[in-house]
Amino acid sequence: MAGANFLLSMTMGAVLSCTCYSVAAHLISKRHISILRAISWGGLGTLSLMLGVCAFSAVGAEHPPAKQEAACLDNSPECYAKAHHNPVKECKQTMDKKATFRHTWLENEVQPVFGSYLWHDENTKIVQAFGHQANVINSLGMLTPLQYFCIFNANTGEVIAASFE
After folding, report:
1. Among 33, 34, 42, 84, which is most exposed with the fewest C-beta within 10 angstroms?
2. Alpha carbons 3 and 79: distance in angstroms, whole number
3. What is the DSSP letter of 101?
4. Tens digit of pLDDT for each residue in 110-136?
5. Is the pTM of this model over 0.90?
6. 23-61: buried (b, 16+ CB within 10 Å) or exposed (e) per residue?
7. Nearest to 55 by CA among 15, 122, 93, 2
């Protein structure tokens, strides 16, 4: 539905923009209107194109939560956390503060910080997330893989506990 609205609004904006440009260019070439009026026509065409984009953004922003809720029908903790509050940044900051050793995080777009999620308490929506996208730097300067976990409330995003293992 949002895709159809996007195409319709973009098409209408593009048609109106091209029409405004063509009419303004034709009238300027025949010396029927001033350049200021032609700029106004061009501005109107550009405005209509931008309004089409904004209309798509507003319509598209309304639908993802419903789709996300529908996708979480299996009640998996990962899906629930990602649909509500998944405090990855806060968990990393908590672990960084608690660490008594040098470590680095693996910045990887393909693999997320947390690879697995489990219910810690399903009734209160407390989730425990595990990951292994960090390395400890030993005394020789070598990197050794490190595992970690974070326990958080998926309803509020509050970090309850986070630590390296």
Report:
1. 34
2. 24
3. S
4. 888 999 999 999 999 999 999 999 999
5. no
6. ebeeebeeeeeeeeebeebeeebeebbeebeebbeeeee
7. 2
